[in-house]
Design a protein that fits this description.
Blueprint (H helix, E strand, L loop, with lengths): L2 H18 L12 E4 L3 E2 L10 H14 L5 E3 L7 E5 L1 H9 L5 E6 L4 H10 L6 H15 L4 H8 L3 H10 L4 H8 L6 H13 L1 H7 L6 H38 L22 E5 L2 E5 L9 E6 L5 E5 L4 E5 L7
Parallel strand pairs: 2-4, 3-5
Antiparallel strand pairs: 1-5, 3-4, 6-7, 6-10, 7-8, 8-9
Helix pairs in contact: 1-5, 2-3, 5-7, 7-9, 9-10, 9-11
Length: about 325
């Protein structure tokens, strides 16, 4: 495995620990209890979405190897036990005919999300760790909108958006953050945008410490360059199209295509008279010569000569034979 993948995997595992830390562990005085799956219910206060294929795969795994971790629920109320963490496992259990009971930890309402929120507000977390933890929390809780997540973890929507976008950064930007080259989430996201426009220029900037202004200036410069390039490409395409239209309207009068007033040049008397070293003759249009040379036939000789084009002078046109 490459160093880049090792680094990314390490950071993902660290972020995941924010959700697992002290949440699925059995605390003193607690015990895992088996609760009928039909006695457990999910909150309907937040709009949720779950990957059906993932839930189906999880259900098959639970059938094969059992439940790895308990889910966390609140104490029994009029509806049953409300899920705090582990809704994916509960939904997977509901798809199974073999599983009738779910392993659960019963805790007071709000304690799990309070712990998650506290973890996310720790000062030692990087923007990337926070962003990935938020992504995992949204997946775990089935949360779709940033505004719903904001109510859960007590972060503003703009900050949640910034952290989630930071989690999408390539490893080289995250590594630069860990090396002290960049220091805040806004600079991180500016460099993320810059990297999408030009990875080369972004890596060049990251060779030394980068301020928020420098990151924003790079994005502005790259966007301007990209706009100019697109404009130049459009102008070039338009110019090429216009030239083609002119060529179509005014085709060149090639010697082998031209028929003027019912006359054409013969193969031996093509109409283009030349002078070479004091002798006159004509150009053999059917002749083949390398670049910079032409084939000529002199009046005083029936043989063909290949000579430098620069040594030949055009002296006029020969009278053309009429086509009958």
């Amino acid at each position: 495995m490459s160093k880049k993948k090792d680094f990314k995997s390490l950071m993902n595992n660290k972020s995941k620990s924010l959700l697992d830390e002290e949440i699925n562990e059995v605390k003193p005085g607690e015990s895992v209890v088996l609760i009928p799956k039909e006695d457990i219910y999910s909150s309907e206060q937040i709009r949720k979405f779950f990957d059906e294929e993932y839930i189906l795969e999880l259900s098959k795994n639970m059938d094969d190897i059992g439940q790895i971790q308990p889910i966390v629920v609140t104490h029994n109320d009029i509806r049953g036990y409300k899920i705090q963490v582990g809704e994916c496992r509960w939904r997977a259990a509901n798809l199974s005919d073999k599983i009738t009971h779910v392993e659960c930890l019963v805790r007071d309402a709000g304690t799990v999300l309070a712990q998650l929120s506290e973890n996310l507000h720790r000062n030692d977390l990087t923007p990337f760790e926070t962003g990935r933890a938020l992504e995992l929390l949204m997946e775990e809780q089935g949360i779709v909108e940033n505004k719903d997540l904001a109510n859960v973890v007590s972060l503003s929507e703009p900050r949640i958006s910034a952290f989630r976008k930071a989690a999408q950064c390539p490893p080289y930007i995250e590594l630069a953050y860990h090396n002290g080259i960049i220091r805040d989430v806004d600079t991180v996201n500016s460099l993320r945008i810059a990297g999408e426009l030009s990875e080369v220029e972004t890596k060049k900037l990251l060779e030394s410490p980068v301020s928020r202004k420098e990151a924003k200036d790079l994005v502005k410069s790259l966007k301007a360059s990209q706009k100019e390039l697109k404009s130049a490409q459009v102008d070039e395409e338009q110019s090429s199209l216009e030239h083609q239209e002119v060529a179509n309207e005014n085709p060149s009068n090639k010697a082998d295509q031209t028929k003027v007033s019912g006359v054409i040049p013969t193969s031996q008397n093509n109409g283009i008279r030349i002078s070479f070293e004091g002798n006159q003759g004509f150009i053999d249009l059917n002749g083949q010569a390398e670049s910079g040379k032409i084939v000529i036939v002199l009046d005083a000789s029936s043989g063909k000569l290949t000579v430098p084009a620069c040594e030949v002078s055009v002296i006029g046109y020969h009278s053309l034979e009429h086509v009958h």
